[in-house]
Amino acid sequence: MNQLRPEIDSVSIPERIRALPVDERGYPVPWFVEWIDGKPEFRVADGEKWMRAVRYRICWVCGQKLGSYLIFVLGPMCGITRTTTEPACHLDCARFAAQACPFLIRAHMIRRGQEELAAMGVTSSGNAIKRNPGVALLWTTRSFEVWRPAPGEMLISVGDPLEVEWWSAGRKATRAEVEESIRTGLPLLEAEAAKQEGAPEALARQVKDFMPLLPE
What we know:
There is one protein chain. With 216 residues, the protein is of the alpha+beta class. It contains 9 helices and 9 strands. The chain has helices spanning 6-9, 15-18, 47-56, 76-81, 91-100, 102-105, 114-119, 175-193, 199-210, and strands at residues 33-36, 39-45, 70-74, 83-84, 136-141, 144-147, 155-158, 163-168, 171-172. It has a 4-stranded antiparallel beta sheet with strand order 3-5-8-9. A hairpin with a 2-residue loop joins strand 8 (163-168) and strand 9 (171-172).
């Protein structure tokens, strides 16, 4: 049996996470990960599990049943639009991800191998922003809706937030870090909005509604 990496084992790990398999590098393998040729491919989410997660309210990270509260791990741009591709988690599973996931704790880490994934036929729904936002938003709500931006695509609209937490580099994020992520990410949303009539005004309203959620 593979052992957890020391830096991960030092984090508060939910028992649901400890029940997951561990890869050869010492990382727990989230439930959503696709297994290819007997190995976990962390860059690819299992489409069948995605459907099960949204239909039966199963935690995206540990694979166990969710309760009344749903926690979505978002970047600031997804928080502004209230749209994501990833189903909800338990709060402790989401906090673990914010403290242990390499992509979430390393602000300059990029999503590697996009060309390779495209060659494998892996695509994402909607107009995904392919950058590392540097901060993670844990958005607690009781509801969500699934919708189709285009044939064959599905996205999730998250419900009104009951609570939010901001994380960066495995710890609580500062307001300055969140503001910098918004400053660098918002032009990407604005460029997409400019392609549709009325969208820039709608985006401006979304940004205004979002700003009170920033950390003090």
